[in-house]
Amino acid sequence: MFITLSRAFLLLALGVLAITTAVLVKIFQPYDLIFKWKLQMSEDGEIFNLWAKPPVDLYIKIYLFNITNAEAFLAGREKMNVEQVGPYVYKEIMTHENITFNANNTMSTTPSHPLVWQEHMSEGNKEDDQVVMLNIAMLAISHLTADKPLFLRMGLRTLFATSKSQPLVRMTAKEFMFGYSSSLTTLGNTFFSKWISFEKVGLIDRMYDFSTDYETFYTGATNAGISGLYATYRGSTNLPQWDGEHCSNIELASDGTKFKSFIQPNETIKFFRKSMCRPINLYRTGEPQTHGSLTGYKYVFEENAFDNGATNEANKCFCRKGKCQPRGLIDVTDCYYGFPISLSYPHFMHGDTGLLDNITGMQPDEQKFASAFVIQPQSGLPLSISAKVQINMHFDDLSTFRQVSRFSHLTVPMLWFDIMMPELPESLDSRFNFYLNILPYLDILGYWGSLALGVALLVYAVTRATLRMSNIAQMNQISDGKYNKVNILRGVSNVHDVYKPCEMKLLHQNEKSPQMHESNIITRHDDMDMEASADLLYKELAATQQRQGSFALDLEPAISGSESGDDDFESNSSSSSLLCSHNSATCPCLLAQRQSVANETESDECTGSLSSGGDAEHSTNETFATHVDNQIKTNNALSIGAKTATNHTIINTNKSIEQAIDNSHSGSSRQNVNTENTMQIV
Asked: In angstroms, rounded to a whole number, what is the distance separating the alpha carbons of residues 197 and 337?
């Protein structure tokens, strides 16, 4: 019983522990804690390594606007007509170099974005394709000096004439993108080195010049959601070319490697690239999209992103020096060495109608030229990127220079690019699938599993303890009604065949102890008919002798128990059960006899109790349980009672044998043998 209860208490403790674990899982959300820890940037950390050298396929597709009617346009006969050529595709090897961790939970780095030509993705286009493009150096100098004093303008006219410079020149696609030799560029680099620090003018080359850049990003130590986002650019949270936080603040913007984590549905996020010269807001749209095994949401440029305040008043800060360009253009002169560069959507999409009226060959299309980012909101991981921007030259009045006067108040498209990442590599997709789709089930399984286990253990422990206690109570309190019911079910008709409560108790003990079942048998017999056949008698006699032998064996421990006084109580009770007379219907159980001999003063009470059925058995059990010190006396009584019962049994057996012999005429020899055997067994 003690062991059973100990096990029940152990199960109970385990159940409480499991439920406590479920509560802790619900409160602390261990997956979120682990995931936030993984998002933090630390040296040689997993996310840090992915951010420092992203193992992604990032490309830039470039489309040039080839001028098809240069002569007719310069002669004033036709509007400028352009033709889109491309794509010219390069792979961008984006890395963060010279990383230093700072004490304020930031890390400083210098970006690097070398480009590698991808001929197989360029759809048959070659870097040496011939195109007619703007002479950026000549037109830029003309624009910058158009309102300068006459003597300066006269000197430039002479320079243009002697160098035979033309505003439209034929060159290869690669020369236009990455630089071509020009006498004007060489002259500018010689005399104005602080302004023109390069010998060749190439639009993509200048756009990807990060040699003077230094950036600071958050590590996420205090807020895992902002890890990998901009803290400063060139030492400041604001870009110097813009006034106002809306236009200049790049803090918490993404460079495209990683966006803000734990993005809320209505939250706006930022994107910043040097080539765009400004931060741009992104907002969620549409339904979830699945890329590989991950699901993200589509984010697009804010509406009127290239508006100069004509529609969105907040965008007036993009009007450089208070001068606003036509709707759809952003003046980024300060980011491109003072060249009159403006940004727009490809093909002047969403731009002022005048932009399309002055140039032919443009075909704006929302589906083709819209930018989109698919971002996994929990991690901030970009699943696909497509940022499309067009670079133009926007001119003021150039009538003071005859060679370039046709470009006055004209916005000429030069190229548009698409910085794209079509999908995540399979290895990265599999890794984040495990982090984002599989690991979250640990919280669910941990909570419900611990809760179910705890409840099950508690219920099992309580049920087991309750049933055990109930069984013990039933075993110790067997009622007279139960004994009567048993006898009724047995269908007894003779009072001599009725089991008394004490006998039922012994039978119940025999059921619990199968090893004692063979010896502890209570048998009852009425006097056999003296006229029965001899064969039946011999069978009965043989059975009687066998039982007597069993009785004698069982009596032996009881008698020896009286001498030692140390035998177990249950052994005495088992042996004493054999002493009930086979022919005495009024014989009380030996349990009551032993109590009577052990305690003379309680003899009358015990006898009365035995005659009253169940009360006698209950009184006897209580007396035996509380008087352990009378065990020696009880054992002596057992031996006396055992001898008396044995003698009585021998007499009855001998009488039965003599009568059987007389009736069956079996002969005196058999009688002697059987009698001797019986006496010897007893």
From this structure: 9
